[in-house]
């Protein structure tokens, strides 16, 4: 077993500043990456280093002791020896991070996985690559080190037909080829009781499945495909980097050939609070990010509706709407009239994607300044700043989008869609942004769905409106909507 030292360990939000303040580090990185370095203080040299790091990067996470579920992802580049190790489909060695408590330092362990002869090359595996992967998937996984043109691959997205599925569920206990070893809640008690979830609601709250569900709301036309447009408009183009990586690379390269914007936001399937989310226009970086956990790549909103923040300027914002689902079978869906605002802290521009306070709005789980505003105050300021647009029109388009999402989520039977159970009641938090549509003479404002959260954090709701949970319980469990600040969709 061999120890490999780490030449540079950093977090993405501080990488650029670290390089700007350490010319020796820039020179060492250029040497490791075989990059020209006439002046290590030049911005172009630093940008080239940051771009090239994704051929060498590895990562690990450190749990934050002061906050449950929170963590910091650390990226590292191995020393000159470790960074020279080539990748192979038939590796001779494996590499793994190793934390040594004695000096509180992280190293990498290098050890053989087969018998190696003297003089034989030391190689390590391509991340993610498996023997059963298709040739297209293998080429996609190798792309950071062996770039290739995959633009010929069909990037359209469709759901498989029934012949694709190898397993199904069965109520017949004599069928030994089916797994049924659990009891449904309905079988556990004789009387009806309430459950705060709906069967198979993961099709909404998992970001990869949410995209599939939303795409059912419209049929993709040839014009959508040829123009590389999203369908429906309120869903950003979304690819699962776990199973649709070749299609994503093809779509990315086709956009590149047409000189279209190629900025993407990469999100874990099922994490909240802005954890492990990255914005990038670097295809190699996006592919490498897909190695750390299952992720989706969503087209980044480059023309959001901005909000004037006092003493700051025009900043990004998003809106949290609370949605109450009382029944799927009878489709009883309500949206809470009062919504919540979240704002970035710096003026929005399409650069510095590592700057959290410029591109992200979730500030209540970290040490960044948090601006809070009642929705009625927001509406007044919004209409004052955008006098040609009525908030009631924007709100109606948001309500229509929410209704479409839940209708399409129930089009298929579980597990492909939300199921019905008489005692199910659920509350969801929908995160929504507003985007300009400038395809017409007069720009319009369109809502865009970001994600759906089950049982969202409602502390701020209770702080603003002490009657919030009284309203929620009255609607969900007492069938009382009068004066409860909800709109039925």
Automatic annotation (TrEMBL):
It comes from Trichonephila inaurata madagascariensis. Residues 1-147 form the Tubulin--tyrosine ligase-like protein 12 SET-like domain. The keyword Ligase applies. Pfam families: SET_TTL, TTL. Keywords: Ligase. Coiled coil: none annotated. GO terms for cellular component: cytoplasm. One of its GO terms (molecular function) is ligase activity. This is Tubulin--tyrosine ligase-like protein 12. InterPro entries: SET_TTL12 (IPR057954), TTL/TTLL_fam (IPR004344), TTLL12 (IPR027749).
